[in-house]
Amino acid sequence: MVSDGKKSNANEQITENLKRVYEEALQEEIPSEFIEMIERLKAEKKAKSDGA
After folding, report:
1. 25: domain range?
2. Closest to 34 (Cα-Cα) out of 26, 42, 22
3. DSSP states of 1-52
4. Number of domains within the chain
5. How far does Cα 52 stand from its chain's mean position?
6. What pLDDT sits at residue 17?
7. What is the average pLDDT across 11-33?
8. For all residues of the chain together, what is the average pLDDT?
9. Residue 25 pLDDT > 90
10. How far is Cα 41 from Cα 36, in angstroms, rounded to an integer?
11. pLDDT band at 40 (very low <50, low <70, confident <90, very high)
């Protein structure tokens, strides 16, 4: 059985690693394909609302 100290240390390491990965993901640029897709969807929505 795992002691509480080892379990706590493992949980702390997992927490820190998840925070690090999350922070790194926030720093990544949004792929141009996603930006283009969003722009197309906005244009379609505007065209529909203008034509309604």
Report:
1. 4-51
2. 42
3. ---HHHHHHHHHHHHHHHHHHHHHHHHSPPPHHHHHHHHHHHHHHHHHHHH-
4. 1
5. 35
6. 98
7. 96
8. 92
9. yes
10. 9
11. very high
